[in-house]
Amino acid sequence: MNTHAPASSIRGAARIGAVARPGAEAVEVKGWLKAHKWLLLRRFSQLSILLLFLIGPWFGLWLVKGNLSSSLTLGVLPLTDPFVLLQSIAAGHPPYREAVLGGGIVLAFYLLLGGRLFCSWVCPINIVTDAAAWLRRRLGIKGGKTPHADTRYWLLGFTLVASFATGGIAWEWVNPVSMLHRGLIFGFGLSWGIVIGVFLYDLLLASRGWCGHVCPMGAFYGLVGKTALLRVTADKRSTCNDCMDCFAVCPEPQVIRPALKAVGQSHPVILDKDCTSCGRCIDVCSKDVFRLTTRFDRSES
User: Fold this and answer.
1) What is the DSSP letter of 267?
2) For residue 123, what are the contacts with CB-CB under 8 A and spacing of at least 6?
3) 70-73/230-233 β-pairing
4) What is the pLDDT of residues 165-205, one digit of tens each?
5) Is the pLDDT of residue 17 over 60?
6) 237-243 LR contacts (CB < 8 Å, sep 24+)
7) What percentage of the chain reaches a pLDDT higher than 90?
8) For a tag site, which of 19, 175, 189, 224 has the least CB within 10 Å?
């Protein structure tokens, strides 16, 4: 009886284990801190922004009033989610001058730097869906029913039609971002039910289902940042060892292959509008294949 498994089986098992814990090799090569640099920066950004909104109702220190849909900072700077502004216009409500100014500021920022930055650097629901993805990998949960990639765009259109038909900002009725804010301020209730529902959906039913296939806000910001300046490049793709860790952690893994494997393009820059510029591919790559740059940097090492 042969007690020795074939080398190919051993390599296959090792690869499965590596993908279940992506970034393990990067930690060994680069150290834990460098292998989690972009993740830690994103969490700092997300939690800091969330705290700015919460210290008012929690501690009476009103640096920022409102929420991510509409806010006023230090009583001077208005910021408005352009997706909310668009729904308001569709609902037949002429926006206030401050709302238009705030929406213009936010829109200009994401047009320049990338719309999906909202999803990975600002949106607190990203913490929830990242936690679901991490736990899904650790538990080895496979399969599920993932919606079509265009579902979020259909929902984007539906929210505008619903706003027009009802005269209200339709997405705010179920928006998990707003629900998370309300839950943290007012305590447990329906708001937390929606947030938990998003977590369970990504954990049990569809890998990266919410942010990658359902959320119309992500669809909107993807369209906004289609020609944005900030991009990730795989300029050292010749050193790739096909460990698949970048695909395992990427919230939009379909954006990697064209740049990494030169499929449909010759340059190494990820230009897909769905890339969130989260930097996790940079973190988990032990070969330092990826880095953050601009869309005009087509150099390759």
Assistant:
1) S
2) 46, 68, 177, 217
3) unpaired
4) 999 999 999 999 999 988 888 886 788 999 999 999 999 99
5) no
6) 237/261, 237/262, 237/268, 237/289, 237/300, 238/300, 238/301, 239/287, 239/288, 239/289, 240/287, 240/289, 241/286, 241/287, 243/15, 243/18, 243/25, 243/286
7) 85
8) 189
